[in-house]
Amino acid sequence: MELAIDIFGWLFILTGCFFAIVGALGLLRLPDVYTRIHSAGVVDTVASFFLLVGFSFYAGFSLVTVKLLLILVFIFFTSPTATNALANAMYSQGIKPALVDEEDSPSKP
Protein backbone atom coordinates (compact mmCIF):
# COMPACT_ATOMS: atom_id res chain seq x y z
CA MET A 1 0.00 0.00 0.00
CA GLU A 2 2.82 2.37 0.82
CA LEU A 3 4.43 1.68 -2.56
CA ALA A 4 1.21 2.70 -4.35
CA ILE A 5 1.10 5.96 -2.39
CA ASP A 6 4.73 6.66 -3.31
CA ILE A 7 4.01 5.95 -6.99
CA PHE A 8 0.97 8.24 -7.03
CA GLY A 9 2.93 10.93 -5.21
CA TRP A 10 5.75 10.77 -7.74
CA LEU A 11 3.32 10.78 -10.67
CA PHE A 12 1.61 13.92 -9.39
CA ILE A 13 4.91 15.64 -8.62
CA LEU A 14 6.42 14.81 -12.01
CA THR A 15 3.25 15.96 -13.78
CA GLY A 16 3.41 19.23 -11.86
CA CYS A 17 7.06 19.66 -12.86
CA PHE A 18 6.13 19.02 -16.49
CA PHE A 19 3.46 21.73 -16.42
CA ALA A 20 5.83 24.17 -14.70
CA ILE A 21 8.42 23.62 -17.44
CA VAL A 22 5.77 24.06 -20.16
CA GLY A 23 4.72 27.33 -18.52
CA ALA A 24 8.31 28.55 -18.43
CA LEU A 25 8.69 27.72 -22.11
CA GLY A 26 5.45 29.57 -22.81
CA LEU A 27 6.88 32.66 -21.14
CA LEU A 28 9.91 32.49 -23.39
CA ARG A 29 8.31 31.52 -26.69
CA LEU A 30 4.94 33.27 -26.93
CA PRO A 31 4.77 36.48 -28.96
CA ASP A 32 3.15 39.17 -26.79
CA VAL A 33 2.61 39.96 -23.14
CA TYR A 34 -1.05 38.89 -23.04
CA THR A 35 -0.38 35.38 -24.29
CA ARG A 36 2.57 35.13 -21.92
CA ILE A 37 0.55 36.01 -18.84
CA HIS A 38 -2.22 33.68 -19.99
CA SER A 39 0.28 30.85 -20.23
CA ALA A 40 1.79 31.69 -16.86
CA GLY A 41 -1.56 32.05 -15.12
CA VAL A 42 -3.11 28.84 -16.37
CA VAL A 43 -0.05 26.65 -16.09
CA ASP A 44 0.88 28.07 -12.69
CA THR A 45 -2.46 26.98 -11.26
CA VAL A 46 -2.33 23.51 -12.83
CA ALA A 47 1.30 22.91 -11.82
CA SER A 48 0.58 24.02 -8.26
CA PHE A 49 -2.39 21.64 -8.11
CA PHE A 50 -0.37 18.62 -9.17
CA LEU A 51 2.61 19.48 -6.97
CA LEU A 52 0.56 20.10 -3.83
CA VAL A 53 -1.53 16.96 -4.32
CA GLY A 54 1.67 14.97 -4.79
CA PHE A 55 3.12 16.46 -1.62
CA SER A 56 -0.06 15.64 0.27
CA PHE A 57 0.31 11.97 -0.74
CA TYR A 58 3.69 11.95 0.97
CA ALA A 59 2.44 13.80 4.05
CA GLY A 60 -0.30 11.26 4.72
CA PHE A 61 -3.47 12.31 6.50
CA SER A 62 -2.22 14.90 8.97
CA LEU A 63 -2.28 18.60 9.70
CA VAL A 64 0.33 19.09 6.96
CA THR A 65 -2.11 17.72 4.38
CA VAL A 66 -4.83 20.09 5.56
CA LYS A 67 -2.41 23.01 5.26
CA LEU A 68 -1.35 21.92 1.76
CA LEU A 69 -4.98 21.71 0.64
CA LEU A 70 -5.70 25.17 2.08
CA ILE A 71 -2.73 26.52 0.14
CA LEU A 72 -4.15 24.83 -2.95
CA VAL A 73 -7.55 26.50 -2.49
CA PHE A 74 -5.83 29.86 -1.96
CA ILE A 75 -3.77 29.49 -5.15
CA PHE A 76 -6.81 28.25 -7.08
CA PHE A 77 -8.62 31.54 -6.44
CA THR A 78 -5.79 34.07 -6.35
CA SER A 79 -3.70 33.09 -9.38
CA PRO A 80 -6.42 33.60 -12.04
CA THR A 81 -7.60 36.75 -10.27
CA ALA A 82 -4.10 38.22 -10.24
CA THR A 83 -3.60 37.33 -13.91
CA ASN A 84 -6.88 39.03 -14.84
CA ALA A 85 -6.01 42.13 -12.80
CA LEU A 86 -2.61 42.33 -14.47
CA ALA A 87 -4.13 42.05 -17.95
CA ASN A 88 -6.73 44.73 -17.15
CA ALA A 89 -4.03 47.05 -15.81
CA MET A 90 -1.93 46.62 -18.94
CA TYR A 91 -4.90 47.22 -21.22
CA SER A 92 -5.93 50.34 -19.32
CA GLN A 93 -2.38 51.70 -19.67
CA GLY A 94 -2.58 51.37 -23.43
CA ILE A 95 -0.72 48.13 -24.06
CA LYS A 96 -2.68 46.55 -26.88
CA PRO A 97 -2.65 42.88 -27.87
CA ALA A 98 -0.56 41.96 -30.89
CA LEU A 99 -2.54 41.62 -34.08
CA VAL A 100 -2.09 38.66 -36.38
CA ASP A 101 -1.14 39.53 -39.95
CA GLU A 102 -3.61 38.48 -42.66
CA GLU A 103 -0.99 36.47 -44.52
CA ASP A 104 -0.04 34.56 -41.34
CA SER A 105 -3.59 33.57 -40.44
CA PRO A 106 -5.21 30.48 -41.96
CA SER A 107 -7.59 31.13 -44.84
CA LYS A 108 -11.26 31.31 -43.95
CA PRO A 109 -13.74 29.32 -46.02
List the helices and strands and how they pair.
Blueprint lengths: L1 H28 L3 H27 L3 H30 L17
Describe the structure using short key phrases.
109 residues, mainly alpha
Q: Main sheet?
A: none
By DSSP, the count of extended strands is: 0
Distance between the termini: 56 Å
Helix content: over 70%
Q: Secondary-structure element sequence? A: HHH
Number of domains: 1
Shape: elongated
SS summary, helix count: 3
Strand share of the residues?
Answer: under 5%
Low-pLDDT parts are none
Summing up helix and strand content along with how strands pair, one would put the structural category as mainly alpha
Radius of gyration: 18 Å
Mean pLDDT: 88
What do these coordinates show?
The structure is a single chain. This protein is mainly α. The chain has one domain (2-92). The protein has helices spanning 2-29, 33-59, 63-92.
Short description:
With 109 residues, this protein is mainly alpha-helical. It is built from three helices and no strands.
